[in-house]
Design brief:
The strands form two sheets. This protein has an eight-stranded mixed beta sheet with strand order 5-12-11-6-10-7-9-8, sandwiched between helices. A four-stranded antiparallel beta sheet has the order 2-3-1-4. Helix content is 60%, strand content 10%. By secondary structure, it is α/β, with parallel strands linked by helices.
Length: 737
């Protein structure tokens, strides 16, 4: 529903009528625009365009054959996927320094003889990449073909020179950078190597990979050997325990006794002690203890015991007290003791060997556990050394390469087509200019038509009349002619025509008959006898409507009186070719009788001219005498029509309207403006007059798409001849005094 309402609001017919109605000024603008463009197209001097082409390589292949750095210096790469390297190079070609150098080199001048400006140069220069290739096309337009070719070649030459210098500058900058970085990189290499060496020295690393492999093997061998030794130790321990059980001594005691029994010094003293003790035992049997010999032997016994203890201490290594019976053992016991000692020695040796193997195995395991960390640390230091060495080697290599690239005169742009002098001018595009002129002219046509229409305040169509006044339209009178010349329009303005009388079968005549029929049936309960015909402003054709409406009523046999009540600018005496010596004004002031002033112009139709124009017309038409005359006239005539002045200009029509049965308002589109029409309606509303309806006069059928007149031609056969002017008719009552 919203779309439908929007479509109805757009009145395309109205816009089309505006274009038709304002054809003259709009056509003038259109013709002027097209003429001006045509003159420009044919008077424009020919322009010549020269073009050249440059090929851009993605890398400098000549330099790449010599050095890798040279290839990188000349390489072209886009910054993102939305642009190409050619876009960047095109902007460089269009850069102001290069353009200004071209202007200065060729001493280019403008039309005034001044040095050509960069902005004017760029307007004629075109730089674009050929799609799908690495070719850049440079073209220049000029009135002089030789100049165009010189400019293109100069631009390409300067660009290539700058491109080579730019590449060499990049190489020089790279060389300076590498020269600055080499000492720092060399120091980094030495520092990394020193750190690796220090790490190896601190952690006793020679060949860590071989060490890890050998450590695993050593741990396995130690574990096997330790198990074997452990078994032997258990066997030795068992034998020691068996020997201890046999001799009743522990290992330490047995070893001590074995040492004493095998010591010559101890055994010698022990023998002497046993000898003295034997003698002492014998002598005691013979002597008393106080005997000197006994005392001497006891003294020797004590000395030998002391010496024996000293010898035992020396052998045993401690002040251990050993009884005499233990110092001498039998051969069997001595053999068992020796075997016990040997077994204990073997056991102790195996125990020590097991301990050594355990400690060695633990040391290997501890070393093996830290080997991964040491390997990681060594790899870190080695990577630092390798990175520093690699950077140093690359810098050394690139230094040599950029030194070579710096001395090369190679760019990444090569000339594939130099500009030649164009023989033919580029298309002047006359057809395009003319087409653009027609389009622009058409647009200006529309703009002019609407602007002129907006500046014109008049009401244009009958539809606008209905919308503004909102009164019933009783009649629509079409325009008398479709095309009216200035002279005929001037004559028509002076002497209106009477088509109802002169061309009774025309569409206009039937329109007036339709008007009188609508008036007849307007008030079926009360017959209209007296009406006042007026308009908003002058030249709307109210007098013509009055005359033709009166004829239409008279032709029906009704006795009609047409009164020219416009005492400002009367027109009825011109229409009917009457004298205006006496008339309404004379009758009102009793200067003449009605019978002397009225004229019969045709059967059943009398016309009362305005008479002498008084100084104050309103005083006459608003008098009681005027009201009495109208009342008296209504007794003798079937219908009375009063032609009154425009409402907006004078107040006569409002005064006369009070004395009638109603006012018939004539409106002519194209004459009355909206302000005057609104004022007229306001006056009618404020005065309380009865408005019978509207008569839309002078309707141009072509401007009324919703009018029923479009179907009239199929029904009526209009007379093609020009209607004859009303000839003067001698009034029947011309002999009246």
């Amino acid at each position: 529903m919203e779309t439908r309402e929007y479509t109805e609001d757009i009145d395309f017919k109205k816009y089309w009528l505006i274009l038709k109605r304002r054809w003259l000024p709009a056509t003038t603008v259109f013709v002027f625009t097209v003429t001006l463009a045509t003159a420009f197209a044919f008077l424009k001097k020919p322009t010549y365009e020269a073009e050249g082409r440059l090929l851009f390589k993605k890398q400098n292949t000549t330099s790449a054959l010599v050095t890798e750095a040279g290839a990188k210096i000349g390489q072209l790469e886009p910054l993102n996927v939305l642009n190409t390297p050619l876009d960047t190079e095109a902007e460089i070609v269009r850069s102001e320094p290069l353009i200004q150098e071209t202007i200065n080199s060729l001493k280019l001048k403008d039309q005034k003889g001044d040095p050509l400006k960069t902005i004017d140069f760029l307007k004629q220069l075109t730089v674009k990449g050929i799609k799908g290739t690495d070719v850049l096309q440079i073209s220049f337009k000029s009135k002089d073909p030789e100049e165009a070719a010189k400019i293109v070649n100069k631009v390409m030459s300067l660009y290539r020179e700058k491109n080579i210098l730019n590449n060499r500058a990049q190489a020089a900058a790279a060389r300076e950078f590498i020269t600055q970085q080499l000492p720092k990189t060399e120091a980094n290499v030495r520092q990394a190597e020193a750190a690796l060496r220090s790490f190896k020295e601190q952690n006793n690393i020679v060949a860590i990979e071989e060490e890890a492999s050998s450590a695993v093997k050593a741990i396995a061998e130690l574990d096997s050997k330790k198990a074997q030794t452990q078994a032997e130790l258990e066997d030795a321990t068992a034998r020691v325990a068996a020997f201890q059980n046999k001799i009743g001594l522990n290992s330490q005691r047995a070893m001590t006794l074995n040492s004493l029994s095998q010591s010559p010094a101890v055994q010698q003293v022990l023998i002497e002690l046993q000898k003295i003790e034997g003698e002492l035992t014998v002598e005691r049997t013979r002597f008393q203890d106080e005997n000197p010999k006994i005392i001497n032997l006891e003294s020797k016994q004590a000395a030998l015991k002391a010496l024996l203890q000293e010898r035992v201490t020396q052998v045993v290594g401690s002040n251990q007290q050993v009884s005499g019976e233990n110092l001498q053992i039998g051969e069997f016991e001595q053999k068992l003791t020796a075997e016990l000692v040997n077994a204990e020695v073997q056991r102790l040796g195996l125990a020590n060997q097991v301990g050594f193997l355990s400690r060695a195995q633990s040391a290997y395991k501890q070393r093996a556990n830290i080997l991964p960390r040491l390997q990681q640390g060594q790899r870190d230091f080695q990577r630092q050394v390798e990175a520093a060495q690699s950077t140093y080697q690359i810098l050394l290599k690139n230094l040599q390469e950029v030194q070579i690239a710096e001395n090369q005169n190679v760019g990444n742009a090569s000339l594939i087509a130099a500009a030649t002098v164009p023989e033919k001018p580029v298309g002047t595009r006359k057809v395009i200019i003319l087409a653009a002129a027609i389009v622009a002219g058409s647009l200006l046509y529309v703009i002019t038509a609407f602007l002129v229409d907006l500046k014109d305040p008049t009401i244009k169509t009958a539809k606008e009349v209905r919308e503004l006044f909102k009164y019933t339209v009783l009649g629509m009178i079409p325009s008398l002619k479709k095309k009216v010349t200035f002279r005929s329009k001037k004559l028509e303005g002076i002497v209106p025509q009477l088509p109802v009388r002169d061309n009774p079968h025309s569409v206009i005549s039937e329109a007036y008959r339709m008007l009188q029929a609508n008036l007849k049936f307007l008030t079926p309960d009360q017959e209209l006898k007296v009406i006042a015909v007026t308009s908003s402003v002058s030249k709307e054709g109210k007098s013509t409507v009055c005359a033709n409406l009166a004829i239409a009523m008279a032709q029906l046999g009704r006795r009609v009186l047409l009164i020219d009540a416009d005492l400002h600018h009367p027109m009825q005496h011109h229409i009917w070719d009457l004298t205006n010596a006496i008339g309404l004004s004379d009758v009102i002031v009793n200067q003449a009788e009605f019978e002397m002033a009225v004229r019969e112009v045709m059967d059943n139709l009398d016309v009362l001219p305005s008479g002498v124009i008084p100084p104050n017309p309103l005083a006459l038409v608003d008098s009681k005498r005027m009201a009495a005359l109208i009342e008296d006239f209504s007794k003798n005539y079937d219908f009375i029509i009063l032609d009154t002045p425009p409402i907006v200009l004078v107040a006569d029509a409002l005064a006369v309207g009070k004395m009638t049965d109603g006012i018939l308002l004539v409106v002519r589109p194209g004459v009355v403006d909206t302000v005057s029409a609104a004022a007229c309606k306001q006056f009618l509303v404020q005065s309380g007059h009865k408005v019978l309806g509207l008569v839309v006069n002078g309707v141009i059928v072509e401007n009324e798409p919703d009018s029923y007149f479009h179907h009239a031609k199929a029904y009526y056969k209009e007379d093609a001849t020009t209607p004859k002017m009303l000839t003067a008719k001698t009034p029947k009552n011309s002999d009246r005094s």
